Amino acid sequence: MPLVPHEDEEDTEGDGEEYTEGEGEIEEPELETAEERERFYQELVKARELERKKAIAEGKMDDPLVPKRLDEAITMVGTCMDMCPRFERYRRERENNLFEWEVIPGTRRVDHKRAVKMYERAAGDKTLPSDLRPPPVLKRTLDYLFHDLLPREGFSPTFNFIRDRSRSVRNDFTMQHETGSLAIECHERCARFHILALHFERGRAGFSLALEEQQLMNTLQSLKEFYEGQHGHYESPNELEMRIHHQLIHIRD
């Protein structure tokens, strides 16, 4: 097994290219003072409310004030084309809640090209289409985490960050009910990351074996459901491997 969670050489339909430096250029206004940054943030808050009303009116998301059966719920489609939604980038900069790899070196300012969406429990009606990344963007995010950040900074130093951000990737797939080939590929890569973590991080201070096994079980369970749902439509070359991992993780049940 490779040290870095890998992509299969065989291409799948809809796959994007591996993350490369300079991809996805992001242009943001130059905000020099704290007052300018706060004013701009408040504008984003207002724009967010307008987006919510428009999305509800256009049938792109459910109105939280209107009761609806679960089978009638609207499946939201993500529109965020960056590794981290714009509003979250500015919000976390404002809250001073950025990892070292998400800031411009020597400052506390967010690096818009390197910030990655953090995992937060599903906020229900607070989630907007602009908060969710489409599958190709989710794949590109994992490309950055696994093929750029991890080999550059090392497994242990980046473990907590990548663990959280890859969990957020999986959550975005779940929120959009995405179960196709890209969802499968990305979950397989996340599963390998958790397997490696159980090997490399075992015994390290602060590492929870039980919590890591739980994340691996969650990932493998999702994969099991994806494989069954895609039967006859798409067959992953890694299905047998992942099903074996699924059986092994439950061998003591």
From TrEMBL:
Transmembrane segments: none annotated. One of its GO terms (biological process) is mRNA export from nucleus. Residues 7-33 have a biased composition (Acidic residues). It holds the Pfam family SAC3_GANP. It comes from the Eukaryota. GO terms for cellular component: cytoplasm; transcription export complex 2. Residues 1-36 are annotated as: Disordered. Residues 83-253 form the SAC3/GANP/THP3 conserved domain. It comes from Bondarzewia mesenterica. This is SAC3/GANP/THP3 conserved domain-containing protein. InterPro entries: SAC3/GANP/THP3 (IPR045107), SAC3/GANP/THP3_conserved (IPR005062).
